[in-house]
Write a structure and sequence with these properties.
Blueprint: E1 4-13, H1 20-31, E2 37-44, E3 49-56, H2 59-66, H3 69-82, E4 83-93
Antiparallel strand pairs: 1-3, 1-4, 2-3
Protein name: Antibiotic biosynthesis monooxygenase
Domain ABM: 4-90
GO molecular function: monooxygenase activity
Length: 101
């Protein structure tokens, strides 16, 4: 996967689920249907800190996902309920290296 874009989303969760798991599952399903989506990697520690990196063919595809109506609703719930802090970065992937798998 080279010459693509990555969206790096780091976050800190609030206490309790409050519907988060169901919403995260729905977003995982919905994002896979989006034109230009290439894949995602995500981890969250026991302390609530997490990082999700999604990969995209273009900046236009990223903006379309950002502005998707259902995703917009979930973003608002994230700000009001699920995250005490988050940070989003958009980067161009120039090359990659791998070992195994």
């Amino acid at each position: 996967m080279t010459a693509c874009f990555a969206v790096i989303f780091t976050s800190t969760r609030t206490e309790g689920d409050n519907g988060y798991a169901a919403a995260a599952q729905r977003m995982a399903e919905l994002v896979r249907e989006q034109p230009g989506f290439l894949g995602v990697e995500s981890v969250r520690g026991a302390d609530g800190h997490g990082i999700t990196v999604s990969y995209w063919q273009s900046e236009a595809a990223i903006l379309a996902w950002r502005d998707h109506p259902e995703h917009r609703l979930i973003q608002a719930r994230g700000r009001s309920q699920w995250y005490s802090a988050f940070h989003t970065r958009v980067c161009r992937v120039e090359r990659e290296y791998a070992f195994g798998q």
